[in-house]
From TrEMBL:
Keyword annotations of the record: Signal
Organism: Hibiscus sabdariffa (roselle)
Protein name: RNA-binding protein 12-like
Source species, domain of life: Eukaryota
Residues spanning the signal sequence: 1-25
Length: 112
């Protein structure tokens, strides 16, 4: 996706530079006399950074009491028993379909 964006930007720049007005403006800028040199600026000194005050120490974490023996885990309640369900009736068997004899096609006539 990034290569597509780069291609579109390059295409847009090439299209904008192909305009006659842009090329004439660039030629006009190239033919101007050179600009005067930049004046030298005085060096400035930065004020010192403020010092960070020291923070008070963090309070200590109180120790929690540790019991020697853990309480017993709760027991899982027993599941109720299911009532006796009568057996399902048997499904009647599907009668077999008689097979159809396979008939072979008649022999093709021989060509002389």
């Amino acid at each position: 996706m990034a290569s597509l964006n780069c291609f579109l930007v390059a295409f847009l720049m090439a299209l904008s530079f192909s305009s006659i007005n842009v090329s004439l403006a660039a030629r006009h800028l190239q033919q101007l006399p050179p600009l005067p040199p930049m004046p030298t600026l005085p060096a400035t000194t930065l004020p010192p950074l403020p010092t960070i005050p020291t923070l008070p120490p963090l309070p200590s974490i109180p120790a929690l009491p540790r019991p020697g023996v853990l309480p017993p885990l709760p027991s899982i309640p027993s599941m109720p028993t299911l009532p006796n369900v009568p057996p399902l009736p048997s499904i009647p068997s599907i009668p077999t379909i008689p097979s159809v004899p396979f008939l072979s096609p008649p022999p093709a006539p021989s060509t002389p």
